[in-house]
């Protein structure tokens, strides 16, 4: 079952809400709001918005690429990349819980005319050993040719885990030997880079250096209100602008958004370790609850997914919501919590305490 967040407005004072459904709920910081108000703008379609131009140039520089393009969403960035690398009637290989499969409205079929070949992996990410058996060469009159391999780092529904660098490098090496492009959905790539320690920008370049294209989000944990980036070669990004227009993603005086994106890129990337520490703390607190199954050692970034022994995820998330904590179900008995800038350490501890109360109340009700 895919992740299910609740869009229904809470019935209590939202100022006391602990929203752990996703890091997509983050609000722009005061510095971002000030930068947005003061942003220098122009017409981006003519390439005349100086703030967007600065953001795109800086993103390309950080990732060691020739060019970058600002897009309204990560979904659009991914779908543009799929279109860049494929032609109709090909297959795209990805892990069975990938965002491009479960959360992007079957657009690979609609926009690129491609079928997704999903491969389940217990680890949540694909190795070349798992990919190789489903690679189809061009020229067959029976099977659709493989056009693209896609990886996701961090792997969201696998609990925000980081793909080991040697695993990615083997996939890239073997794919490129076969002239197969590889796209990275790096929506949370800065979370992955944070786990390596040291210079986060150098880590990002290391983790992404051989991918043909990379998409990453400025929203989510980086707190920008809107926007993602697609980076790659100059030719690829020139073509990407055509597909952005085709998808309705062309923007005019969008420097007001890019101004927040610059702060997200330069400043908010440097604080992600706080979210990771809070996620680890949350997992350690949850592990003390008898009804909860979780190994805190598996929590690498800002996503915490736990299983329940007897209660249903729907029952638990409903009980949490009634007490001011928002969470999402990832399966009949699994729940996802995501830490972010707008939920501090004390809020995480309080959320764990409230979960304990919800589970105890459920146990009492079951015995009566």
TrEMBL record:
<dbReference type="InterPro" id="IPR015421">
    <property type="entry name" value="PyrdxlP-dep_Trfase_major"/>
</dbReference>
<keyword id="KW-0663">Pyridoxal phosphate</keyword>
<protein>
    <submittedName>
        <fullName>Threonine aldolase family protein</fullName>
    </submittedName>
</protein>
<feature type="domain" description="Aromatic amino acid beta-eliminating lyase/threonine aldolase">
    <location>
        <begin position="19"/>
        <end position="306"/>
    </location>
</feature>
<dbReference type="Pfam" id="PF01212">
    <property type="entry name" value="Beta_elim_lyase"/>
</dbReference>
<dbReference type="InterPro" id="IPR001597">
    <property type="entry name" value="ArAA_b-elim_lyase/Thr_aldolase"/>
</dbReference>
<dbReference type="InterPro" id="IPR015422">
    <property type="entry name" value="PyrdxlP-dep_Trfase_small"/>
</dbReference>
<dbReference type="InterPro" id="IPR015424">
    <property type="entry name" value="PyrdxlP-dep_Trfase"/>
</dbReference>
<dbReference type="InterPro" id="IPR023603">
    <property type="entry name" value="Low_specificity_L-TA-like"/>
</dbReference>
<comment type="similarity">
    <text>Belongs to the threonine aldolase family.</text>
</comment>
